[in-house]
Amino acid sequence: xxxxxxxxxxxxxxxxxxxxxxxxxxxxxxxxxxxxxxxxxxxxxxxxxxxxxxxxxxxxxxxxxxxxxxxxxxxxxxxxxxxxxxxxxx
Length: 90
Fold this sequence. Notes:
The protein is mostly beta strands. Helix content is 11%, strand content 34%. The protein has a four-stranded antiparallel sheet, with helices on one face. A hairpin with a 2-residue loop joins strand 2 (57-64) and strand 3. The chain is elongated, with a radius of gyration of 18 Å.
């Protein structure tokens, strides 16, 4: 087998602690449900609903600017990892 040129190498997208988000500082103690709601509200969201936590992350549904969003929230680093607009708010 001949070695592949560098430009033809395939990346599978696996990352093991080498992305900037992996170095985000963690809080000494993870946030409680009440603290999560307060943190999301401080960012300008209202009508906040929490899903079940899963390994330092929780899905949050909240309203901001006339839209309902699904937020991927890291409650041990107090940061939003991602957000998806679901629908216009009623």
